[in-house]
Fold this protein.
Amino acid sequence: MGAGLAGVTTAWYLAKDGHEVVVVDREPQVAAAASFANGGIVAASRGYPWPAEGLFGAIAASLARLDPELWSWGLEHLALRGSYARILDAKVRLLRYSQARLHELVAETGVQYKRLTNGVLYLYRDERSLERGWQRAGVMRAMGFPLELLDAAGLKAKEPGMAGAAGAIYARGDEAGDSALFCRALAEKCRGLGVSFYLDCEIREPVFVDVSLREIVTSKGRIRGDAFVCALGAMERPLREKLGARLPVYPVKGYSATVPLKGPGPAHAAIDESRRVAYCPLGNELRITGGSQFIGHVRGHAPADLRPLFDAVESLFPGVADFSRARTWDCRRPMTPETTPRFGAGPTYANLWFNVGHGHMGWAMAAGGGRITADLVGGRAPGIDLEGLRIRRN
Ligand SMILES: Cc1cc2nc3c(=O)[nH]c(=O)nc-3n(C[C@H](O)[C@H](O)[C@H](O)COP(=O)(O)OP(=O)(O)OC[C@H]3O[C@@H](n4cnc5c(N)ncnc54)[C@H](O)[C@@H]3O)c2cc1C
């Protein structure tokens, strides 16, 4: 259930393991929701928990809205302030595992997705924040991630066309690419293994018999199965509640633009840490993403939502991007309070597995999450300890 990054990678590994697989999604295309035009960055070395990232203001502002789901999510998120080390450990464990699986998968399938393997820059606009960023990165360096501190001159040498940043942390091992292209290319490989995709097919109702999910009722009829995987991302609450597990997955809205370049653009993907804006070169276009709004499933965007993203890029690369021809988009990150996904079978139904809650790093965590889920469905021990990553019982 779900044809985003989580669903398609799971389908691939299940099919490889010899299962007969059907993927169901309400969208007419694979990777049409959160996995469509995301930031594209596989930031394996940046697995910091969100509780440390200053989101308290954004959450607190949203708590004024009449949204009981956000209140309980927000309170759970705020209560995690003392759990930084535990969340970081789970997140980095998954990110590392996932990047290794991604490399294997790309080598095996040859999927093309405008991949960039020249590292990722984490930019800072002033020296104090650069220094604080480098201190924060100490924990990642201690875990062996190859990070390099670049002052303004070092950054200029790496990215000559850039202006306006005081320096950067350069993560040589991080990478980037278009996750929708990846998903769609992998879906083709899945089809080659006999996987069927039922698209334009809304899942409405699970039908349980005793402790098993027997079938799902969809807009195109009933679909029966021996085992089901819920990879429905930021699904709406009524369906979530029917699935028998506690799934505090809140839709955190973000914005994206894919902008034609007027000439040579940036050579590296980057996150502007000072402005919380990411960009990623994708051929002769630049993907720009940012924004975190806690406003439920509200869709749509206005020029003002994209303005801070465009301003950030324009100040770094004046005149390089043609914003007048931007293709803009908004979407919701499926976010748990811990900002880490949850895997495993729920407490109620033995044949219903979850691969949900990938939040702001679902591209970086996708291949690992798919492999873990296929292993669990197949009754095998997953390749990493799932401490901190399991579906909860309460
Ligand atoms: C602006 C933005 C920038 C991001 N940047 C990055 C980044 O740089 N790096 C990174 O690692 N991650 C990034 N992410 C996060 C990443 O995109 C997500 O974590 C990831 O796409 C989640 O994948 P998913 O498969 O869980 O969800 P989705 O891709 O949303 O897939 C869920 C699928 O379930 C389907 N579905 C839901 N309900 C139903 C139903 N009732 N019936 C049928 N189908 C249903 C949906 O149509 C959808 O296709 C970003 C996200 C956003 C929004």
User: Anything to note?
Assistant: The first helix runs from residue 5 to 16. Residues 2-7, 24-27, 32-35, 38-41, 202-203, 231-233, 235, 239, 254, 256, 278, 289, 331, 333-334, 358-364 surround flavin-adenine dinucleotide (CB under 6 Å). The two ends are 23 Å apart (CA to CA). The chain is about 30% helix and 25% strand.
